[in-house]
Amino acid sequence: MQGGMSDASALTIFAITLPGLEATLADEIRALGFAVDTVEPGGVTFAGDWPDVWRANLELRCATRVLIRLGSFMAFHLAQLDKRAKKYPWADVLDPQVPIRVEVATSRKSKIYHAGAATTRIVGGLEAQGFTCAADGPVVLKCRIDDNRVTLSVDTSGEPLHKRGHKQAVGKAPLRETLAAAFLAQCGYDGTQAVHDPMCGSGTFVLEAAEIAVGLQAGRTRSFAFERFVGFDPDVLAQLRTDARRRSAQAQPLTGSDRDAGAITMACANAERAGVADLVHFSQANAADSAPHDTAPGLVMINPPYGARIGDKKALYPVYGRLGQILIESYKGWRIGIVTSEAALAKTTGLPFLPDGPSIAHGGLRVRLYRTDVLT
Q1: What is the percentage of the chain residues whose pLDDT exceeds 90?
Q2: Model confidence over 290-319: pLDDT tens digits?
Q3: Distances in Å between the alpha carbon of 139 and those of 82, 97, 158?
Q4: How does DSSP assign 194-228, residue by residue?
Q5: Which candidate, 281, 289, 284, 290, places its Cα nearest to that of 261?
Q6: Spatial separation of the C-alpha atoms in residues 138 and 152, rounded to whole Å
Q7: Is the pTM of this model over 0.90?
């Protein structure tokens, strides 16, 4: 068990990401100066202190949430869990004035396998120490019982981290910011290349690229659950939190186009809220009319329609075929990244894709990034 927020001992920090993106998240964590302990299914563990937890929430782009592992113990029956819960030092981290939501996951490898009964015992242990538990509590305590080991974690993020806090306008099938950031990283984007999205929708790829280019914190305009923990120091967070750009604007253009005028309106509004309107340019145009910029080649990132999302997959084959033709003919020297749920549609483009990346669950579908090396 780690101590409270004044404790200088290392915390076990677990950054969650979508399954399949663990290696990308691990690279990002290392780039932020943290030492990765383990890369495991669903996330990455690393050590740090409380300001490191706060900084991870502010700056990680590929993480869904950041948890703190409070501790673990063995429990072989409900009475044992009940006794442990009533004696557990919850107040080291949790504030009795803040309602808590308890979430329990169990495995059949454990003697305690009924999640509802386990939840009742954890809630009882908290209430015995003066805490309030509620289904809509702003602080979430996660309990996992696997092979008779009870592991306790607390969610330090609150709202999922893809909710950056400044993107309000979205289209029918928005790509989450965390996934967009991961795909940009997998395509080698480091903030210095040109980026163009000819089917930009509400602008997610272009806006993420712009923030990366000038070093803006992903969570700079939002709040977090850890602000309601015991011993939270707003002055330290204020020092870590910055709305300022850490690098000067790079010269390469960051642009998006879409045939839907409403999408362009949304993208421009999102750029204004994100504080990057001066770095990006959005215009109404068909993808077929999209031409490369008069600049050094960069990266084309596209999240085109796909069958399960739109409804008529057959009608999309000529769209993908034409898109591929345009990219091959007009974007020599560029790299291409296309996100789709359909391997057959990706193949229809005729692009020379690198080996497939992992399949990622997103919005009820499984999508995959198809990427090329530099087109010749």
Answers
A1: 81
A2: 777 677 899 999 999 886 555 567 889 999
A3: 21, 11, 7
A4: -EEETT-TT-HHHHHHHHHHHT--TTTT---GGGG
A5: 284
A6: 17
A7: yes
